[in-house]
Amino acid sequence: MIEKCLFPVAGYGTRFLPATKSMPKEMLPVVNKPLVQYGVEEALDAGMNTCCFVTGRGKRSIADHFDISYELEHQISGSGKESYLKSIRDVLDRGVFTMVRQREMRGLGHAILTGEPLVGNQPFGVVLSDDLCLNTGGDGVLAQMAKLYAQFRCSIVAIQEVPPEEAHKYGVIAGESLRDGLYRVEDMVEKPPAGEAPSNQAIIGRYILTPDIFEILRDTPPGKNGEIQLTDALLTQAKQGCVMAYRFQGKRFDCGSVPGFVEATNHVYENLYEE
Fold this sequence. Notes:
Blueprint lengths: L3 E5 L20 E2 L2 E2 H11 L4 E6 L4 H6 L4 H7 L9 H9 L1 E6 L6 H7 L1 H4 L4 E4 L3 E4 L6 H12 L2 E7 L9 E9 L2 E9 L10 E9 L3 H6 L11 H11 L2 E5 L3 E4 L3 H14 L4
Parallel strand pairs: 1-4, 1-6, 4-5, 8-12
Antiparallel strand pairs: 2-3, 6-11, 7-13, 8-11, 9-10, 9-11, 10-12
């Protein structure tokens, strides 16, 4: 039902400097696989076989990663090292990859709007590669959300409970509980002041969006730091129609921070890595 997934990957990754001075943060490896590949595999597993990247300057290695490297494959052909390419070959066989450049950094909402020519007039997923989501016992987060979309046919944001003292770091929702872990959004605030969050249900980097979000984003004035906030557009969409918030099954790692990245690396190495 949902065929496309948008990956905003134009950010600078300043919290990982100097490593990200010449290397995209999305290409930082969690053990032996770059962050962005985990997100792409999650999208493909959810049936979203067209992966649309909103890139920026200095991000060409992402395009190269999702392409064939003839020189490398020739050098290791027939050797034991060839097996190391299995996961990325599987991805290339299953997916179609398109790209557009975001010429200036004006917030997540602007990045989503930049991807409109790639997505077109259809519902689509969004993955923020900073958030590594793993659910080894069942469907990935996007697959869980796609099933909900088939039922509700509206935009859906993934949420998780966070300690109240950390709510100011996130977009936070409040709304009517429809069942355990599922809410109809009534309010949504991007990084509220400490102590003023409407709940401790924080939005993480997984979305399913309906195409009317593009028109709403075009009419959304810049918010904090002069950026177009996706949260503001989603709140408008919630007031005009419906936005659902879903507390997903699985584990999420904040790989946009060094402690979260180290935690993710240790988890993958101890639980998922196969040499």
